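[Amino acid chain]
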Amino acid sequence: MSSENAAQSGERNEHVWDVVVVGAGPAGSSAAYAAAVAGRRVLLLEKAELPRYKTCGGGIIGPSRDALPPGFELPLQDRVHAVTFSLNGRLTRTRRSKNMLFGLVNRQEFDQRLVEAAEAAGADVRTGVTVSRVEQHGPAVPDRRTVAVVLNDGEVVLARAVVGADGSASRIGAHVGVKLDQVDLGLEAEIPVPATVAEDWAGRILIDWGPLPGSYGWVFPKGDTLTVGVISARGEGAATKRYLEDFIARLGLAGFEPAISSGHLTRCRAEDSPLSRGRVLVCGDAAGLLEPWTREGISFALRSGRLAGEWAVRIAEAQDAVDARRQALNYAFAIKAGLGVEMGVGQRMLAVFKRRPRLLHTVMTGFRPAWNVFAGITRGSTTLGEVVRTSPLARRALGALDKA
């Protein structure tokens, strides 16, 4: 190598980030935070300008709260102490709790604060930046320890490890080869309401088991706005839209003009789907990590993002491909041993719910141990996986439901 080339190579390597995270949602911000607090040079890339709207109910359950950075102050819009359950508008029953079950946030504010926490930990943030692809071989990659993140304008950002957290339509997920097992369509409306209507909903949410197999609707109050949405399997777009329209009308909200109407796809990974490729990891929606029955994704994003950031640090330190692969496998094991178990139970619950929604509604509203489990999960004192692992009664009940 000539002295000129050597000088250019040395200059280039000075600009190699330890960890580059793509996507500044809860998963990406958590990954950037975890890597930054470990003292590494971290760059967080986001295609949108922040803060930005995100279609999401915004429910912060216990596992989400427990995965937040120390001292993080939740921008709560409401605190939930009661849940009303209905079966496509019928058999309505409300269960209440003296203690808060979970909190509700607006995602734009919540996500912005997570990005600020990552910045405070030392991460650099660039917004308005779209990633075209990542390369682990070829002329853009100076050595085997480096990943090239190629932006739409042709700029190349170099890193020792990359975390893909760029949502359910992830380009990084495509690079890794993420395989999906379940895709659902969620439709949502942000509906401003008068104070008298808002007061009626304060502290209480509604969960309505819907008319389509595996579907349900929700009302989440956030001050003077109600977040109203429904979700069902992809391929039922027209029926899902009718469900939302009927749901809003049934609630007496049809006369109020939504401030925002939006939709999105949620995607669950197949059990054998990869979580890494070389020095690239995926987490959150980009990895297809969410609870299949409720499609709850915030806690999965926060928890998988934190793990991805921690293991990305180890990958960045790896001196060869073998060590990098070992660390990536350890990350996959950590995900599967925790979140993977919860997803497995959620898949079983969804299968039961599709076949027997009325039975599940009856159990949830009329069987106190079932309500206690629901409350424990929302508060964060347990998880679906832990309940099944530690409770013989829960295992027998789930087995009976499997056969129902």
Remarks:
- The mean pLDDT is 92.
- The chain is about 40% helix and 25% strand.
- The radius of gyration is 22 Å.
